Amino acid sequence: MGQRKKPVLCLTFDNLGEAHNVFLGKSSVPDPAAPAITDGYPNILRLLEKHDLRATFFVEGWSALHYGDILRSLSDGGHEIGLHGWIHEVFADLPERTARQYVHDGLQVLKLRGLQPAGFRAPGGRIGPHGLALLAEAGFAFDSSVDVARPTGIPLDIDGYAGDGLLRLPNGLVRTPWQWFMIDAIHYELAENGLRDPADLAGYWSGVIRNVARTKGFVTIICHAHVTGVDPARVSALEKVLRLALDLGIEILPCGKAMQRAEHMA
Fold first, then answer.
1. Which end of the chain has the smaller Cβ count within 10 Å, N or C?
2. Phi and psi torsions of 29, nearest 5°
3. Torsion sign across C-alpha atoms 84, 86, 88, 92
């Protein structure tokens, strides 16, 4: 896609509420007292409002059904809402019929909320063998998933990484790419060698931001209200990275806006 005049940070957040616990069989109904709901989302939204930023929030269809007030706050704040499966299932492992059902049902719930999502991110990260065709069939404009499984560890030397480029797929979808080491949960919870200290992660991501600024690159960050939003030190670390990006002249955009900007330059 087109040459960028300015570097871009695509800012995204995944998951809403108890959807994943429903998938795991640990819950069956929303928990309004969950820290991600009482603290995580308010903290994230305050941070974005403080810096006048907009982001993409990928939410599960089940969550859209049960957390209408949060969806309204996101929409009223000018944020983009994308679909994130139904109950944070492992999307790549679904049979085609089930994947189609989850995409269809999630879209219908969001439409009932007055929303028409342009983008999708597969729960679990990987899009799987049926996903791209189903998304094109359903009328999505972009997909922000990957084709590679989550690694057990992360690269500690990323001096050469300056982000990824948007990719127009043969079926017309735009792929908004990301790397596993640009996800908060990978560092704080999942990777064997993840950076558990928020200050260390801020330094790690700041190195990427400097590379992106220097090369006019494109990079995606993925955070979660239940991972970053509930911890003041982690929120501060994310703010440090966002401040640096702004100071270096990087545009911080939701996925759809970043895609439109690239197409305008094409």
1. C
2. -135, 160
3. negative
Which tokens hold the place of 148?
């590679």
Structure-token pair, residue 239: 């703010």
Tokens representing residue 224 in the block: 């979660």
C-alpha 178, offset from chain centre: 9
Contact 70, 262 (CB under 8 A): no
What letter represents residue 142's amino acid?
Answer: F
Q: Which amino acid is at 245?
A: A
Among 209, 253, 265, smallest CA distance to 56 is for 253
Q: Which of 97, 137, 144 is nearest to 123 (CA)?
A: 144
Q: Tell me what pLDDT residue 198 has.
A: 98
User: Which residue's entry shows tokens 């979808």?
Assistant: 173
Q: Per-residue pLDDT tens for 98-157?
A: 999 999 999 999 999 999 999 999 999 999 999 999 999 999 999 999 999 999 999 988
CA 184 to centroid of chain Cα atoms = 10
Q: For residue 147, what are the contacts with CB-CB under 8 A and spacing of at least 6? A: 126, 127
Predicted pLDDT at 178: 97
Quote the CA–CA distance of 182 and 238 in Å, as a whole number: 11
